Amino acid sequence: MDTVYSENHIRHAGRVELYGGRLVPCFEKPERARLVVEQVRSRSLGDIISPQSHGLEPLLRVHSGPYLEFLQTAWSDWCAVHGDTDALPINWPVRSFSQRVPDSIDGRMGFYSMDAGTPITEGTWEAVKGGADATLTALDRVQSGRAAAFALVRPPGHHAARDFCGGYCYVNNAAVAVQSFIDQTGERVAILDVDYHHGNGTQSIFYDRSDVFFQSVHGDPNQEFPYFLGFADECGSGEGDGFNRNFPLPWGTTAERWFEAVDEALRRINEYKPGLVVVSLGVDAYKGDPISHFLLESADYIRLGERIAGLGLPALFVLEGGYAVDEIGINVVNTLGAFDAACG
After folding, report:
1. Bigger pLDDT: 155 or 344?
2. In the list 89, 142, 172, 313, which could disulfide-bond 109, CB 3.0-4.6 Å?
3. Residue 243: inside a domain, yes or no?
4. pLDDT digits 0-9 by tens, 209-233
5. CA 186 to CA 211: how far, in whole Å?
6. Is residue 110 in some structural domain?
7. What is the pTM of this model?
8. Which bin fits 43, alpha (ψ -120 to 50), beta or left (φ > 0)?
9. Residue 199: CB partners within 8 Å, gap ≥ 6?
């Protein structure tokens, strides 16, 4: 399996995030990608290639122009007012507030974000654009006839919606690839999101469409971030009714219960008969993850890879979360290696 990897990810290195009422070192850090690529090399998963630039047009098919412009200019605008510190929002346009975009960078930080855990730094845009290019390059490999490819990206993407960032995510890499595939082929796509946290951004982008079937297995939003999306009764709207399926699970969920949900999602994908499956591969359902509450073991990710291979579909794997850094590479490559082995 080819891995597409952009060294630009290291340009995004936040110092602090707000967590549990304190400013703490960021959980989403460059070490995550470094440890994954080390495992890819040491276990001879396949070639590691650099991404090709795909311009902004594929991103504009998913994200709003003003939002992407904000991501490109936020750091310089922030520094002009606050100096060289991580850019974090201090308030948000909640239910009774105006939804107009302020001139102030502090106001725009709140308007275009959903939390105080997703800092913008000097190199955030370069890292984000590199991740999108890596994902699109991985898609190119699949469309050239590969059974699968892996976009080894950071920061992750599945919490990013059309016009806001959050949950460590800025551009929704999986959604950009899905839309690009549909634009090029006209075929349907299934998304399987196995990250511990619900892919609220991906869901919102495709919620009213029937050409994308989104399924997510994640922590119950009654207990877990992002709290306000990811419930079982969210099934899509309009043409998308029936093409969104959430499997919220409680803290302490074991591998046995988790795989019951995954198997049901895979069964539905089989029935849907897409031309491509995109896997938002977060590995933070692992029992040692510092900000998650499921109980998967590293060996369970081998089982996951085998099950996804059983679909018999071209697959694009996109790295999402996973913050137990000592194990992140093991868990990711367990999944990918098992998929490769099962595909022969």
Report:
1. 155
2. 89
3. yes
4. 999 999 999 999 999 999 999 999 9
5. 9
6. no
7. 0.98
8. alpha
9. 158, 159, 174, 191, 193, 214, 216, 218, 280, 320
Angle at 301 between CA 297 and CA 304, to 5 degrees: 130
Structural domains in the chain (count): 1
On whether residue 255 sits in a domain, the answer given is: yes
Domain that holds residue 273: 2-63+127-343
The span from the CA of 215 to the CA of 204, in Å, is 12
Give the model confidence (pLDDT) of 52-90 as tens digits.
999 999 999 999 999 999 999 999 999 999 999 999 999
Of 162, 120, 127, 131, give the one whose Cα is nearest residue 15.
Answer: 120
Whose CA is closest to 204, among 56, 63, 59, 57?
63
pLDDT band for 344, please (50, 70, 90 cuts). Answer: confident
Whole-number Å distance between alpha carbons of 122 and 255: 39
From 159, 197, 198, 218, active-site residue: 159
Tokens 């399987």 correspond to 192
The yes-or-no verdict on residue 287 having pLDDT over 90 is yes
- Whether the upstream peptide bond of residue 226 has omega within 30° of 0, thus cis, is yes
Can 9 be counted among the known catalytic residues?
no
- Give the CA dihedral 306, 156, 222, 62, nearest 10 degrees: -100
18 in Cβ contact with 309 (< 8 Å):
no
**Radius of gyration in angstroms for the set of CA atoms belonging to the chain, rounded to a whole number:** 19
- What CATH number does the domain containing 216 carry? 3.40.800.20
How far is residue 132 CA from its own chain's centroid? 11
The predicted pLDDT at position 278 comes to 99
Q: How confident is the model at residue 35 (pLDDT cuts 50, 70, 90)?
A: very high
Closest CA to 6 of 125, 111, 151: 151
With tokens 């730094």, the residue in question is 121
| Whether the Cβ atoms of residue 198 and residue 272 lie closer than 8 Å to each other | no
Backbone angles phi, psi at 175, to 5 degrees: -65, -40
Note whether residue 70 is domain-resident.
Answer: no
CB 316 within 8 A of CB 151: yes
Overall average pLDDT of the 4-17 stretch: 96
